[in-house]
Predict the 3D structure of the following.
Amino acid sequence: MTKLGSFDFQKIEKYRDNLKAMEKAVPGLVEECVYELAKKLLDKTLARTPTNMGELRRGWKIGKVSMTSKGAKVEVFNVMKNSSVMEDGQRLANGQDWEEGKFIMTISVQKLERQLPNILEKKMKRFVKSFLK
């Protein structure tokens, strides 16, 4: 008969426990990522807002992160009533001419979307590494 060797299951059990802990921590990671992305979007939006529009610049806010069945969401918005005019543009008083919008938020979102894969990849690597030491 061949002799079966001994096998230490402690490392496998520790790995299993780390995976379970990581699974429990995922919702917190999602919320953290969404808020961090909202802060980056706010920074980009503030940078695009004209400096002579003090009230408009101070009006940008981040809402609360809320978890949904599809993930998490957060709003980045401006509390000023005329902020949509700056974003989208408006018809002038003569009724015929159009003043173009600045697309402050639209362009900021597009820039952030291009950076999104790199931002999330770094975040995920740090997250996994913290559990699988």
In short: The chain has one domain: 12-131. The mean pLDDT is 92. The helical segments are 10-48, 54-58, 83-88, 104-131. The CA atoms of residues 59 and 107 lie 18 Å apart.
